Amino acid sequence: MRQLDEDFREAGRIASQAARQPAFDTVRRRAWLLRLRRRALATGAVLALAALSFAGFAALRPAAPGQPADAGPRGLPSTVESIALPEPSGTAAAKPYVSWAGAAGADHVYAVVSGCGTCALRMVASGDGGVTWQPRGVPPAGGRRTTIWSVLGERLLIATTLPSQQRGVERWMTLDGGLTWTAFGLSARPVDRVPDGTRAVDPAAIGAPAGGPALYAVDPAAGVVAPLAVQPPLDHARLVDAPPGAGIWARGRDRSSRRPAVAVSTDGGRTWRRTVLAAEPPALVDDGVFHVATTDGRLVYAHTGDHGQTRLHRSADGGATWERIATLSTAARPAGYVTRDGGYVLAAGDRFVADDGAVDIPGLPGWDLAPRAVAVDSYLSWDFADAYRSADGITWHRLNVL
């Protein structure tokens, strides 16, 4: 327990430092996005790569010398959608800001906002895709302490507050979309599957001890979170952020070949199918970037990288087989998503790499904590200024949360 508290204090320190950037207008660092798109021609499909600029910080900042590129802050979730920044600083501290946003499908959107850098946080919710917003509550400690938020269902959310000098880790659950919150505990008794309509839980999002199970599930009726009885058959397994309809995905290392591998379950985690990226050299996954993305569970992309090189892989059959489709002489970050038309957008260091020129993503001012697919036809992103939605991953609009 002492080690867990130390891990969360360290995570809180890192998250706080990441949030205390210069003034809002200068908080963004420049880098590039690569867009990978298939284009149908008379002679077949060709791949086009394009790049555009994005803003990133916190979990997407470049790795420090000697740190794996995908390690991230210790103790924070591997799915970056859960990370909430405590407050901005500088001139932005006096303005209202968005601390976090999440969604379950196209309609149910949640955001945590504040009126100023030192004001208490509050939650707002929308049941119509962000057209209108209603006030919701936050857990007793979630209004001022650094909190990891996760949307697990349309009205099911959990919040884990990081420890302070006076209080330890606190875990809260809401079954009514934030109207009421109840404390929950971690159960050691495994459950056989992730309940329908909910998502698997990253262990770091609930303050679970390091080195334990890779995936958990929430039991709303019992008010507990428990490990899955059958874990993904991978070493160093990490949950992949994917819409519930895509199945449950995990990435990690194959135990025999030591190559990057993925595992997918279509029955809530009862059984798993594992495939290896055979074109990759044997290596520890944690030594380099390894990111997997899908929206429908059928078309899946992965990119791996080390030594300043990025290798792109694609599966058109739900991860059963993989092909390496490109190799880039630039370093990619562990972030990317599949667009509705089958393209792939990924963060790729600070170089412009393009085969057919730059591609614009209208309405999206920055990458911040990574745009993500919340359904096949719904994408969400956010920064301090607002939350943003897209129906295709390319054209975005503001939700006017504040």
Could you characterize the architecture of this molecule?
The structure is a single chain. With 402 residues, the protein is mainly beta. The protein has one domain. Helices cover 4% and strands 36% of the residues. It is built from one helix and 27 strands. The strands form seven sheets. A four-stranded antiparallel beta sheet has the order 2-1-23-22, with no helix packed on it. A hairpin with a 7-residue loop joins strand 5 and strand 6. The protein is globular, with a radius of gyration of 20 Å. The relative contact order is 0.16. The N terminus is likely disordered.
Number of helices: 1
| Helix content range | under 10%
The total of beta strands comes to: 27
Sequence stretches where pLDDT stays below 50 over 5 or more residues: 1-83, 349-359
From the helix content, strand content and strand pairing, which structural class follows?
Answer: mainly beta
Q: Report the biggest beta sheet as strand number plus sense, adding barrel if it closes.
A: 4 strands, antiparallel
Mean pLDDT: 75
For the biggest β-sheet, the strand order reads 2-1-23-22
| Gyration radius over CA | 20 Å
Task: Count structural domains.
Answer: 1
Distance between termini? Answer: 38 Å
- Quaternary form: single chain
Order of helices and strands: HEEEEEEEEEEEEEEEEEEEEEEEEEEE
User: Which band does the percent of strand residues land in?
Assistant: 35-45%
Please state the overall shape, judged from the principal axes of the Cα atoms: globular
